[in-house]
TrEMBL record:
One of its GO terms (cellular component) is cytoplasm. The lineage of its organism: Bacteria, Pseudomonadati, Pseudomonadota, Betaproteobacteria, Burkholderiales. Belongs to the SdhE FAD assembly factor family. This is FAD assembly factor SdhE. The keyword Cytoplasm applies. Its main location: cytoplasm. Keywords: Chaperone, Cytoplasm. InterPro entries: SDH (IPR005631), SDH_sf (IPR036714), SdhE_FAD_assembly_factor (IPR050531). It comes from Paraburkholderia silvatlantica. It comes from the Bacteria. GO terms for biological process: succinate metabolic process. It is found in: Cytoplasm. The keyword Cytoplasm applies.
Amino acid sequence: MESHQSDPHRRARLRWRARRGLLENDLIFERFFERHEHELSDADVGALTRLLELSDNDLMDLLLARKEPEGDLADPDVKRVLELLRNV
């Protein structure tokens, strides 16, 4: 069983990092955190961190399902978090 990410400071840093230059991305992440912030596991936080390393345009393509994760991002944790993001 995966542990819940209980460190509020780590979640706050992640939420701050999720603020994006593109308003569309910002809105998706804002809704995502409203719904899922308190149930994120360590694996979820790791997957989100990896997604947030992408450029705004690459991230938007994934969020809007114009592209699917490839290479290092094509792992089950990233795919699961991406599915949550796509469904907010």
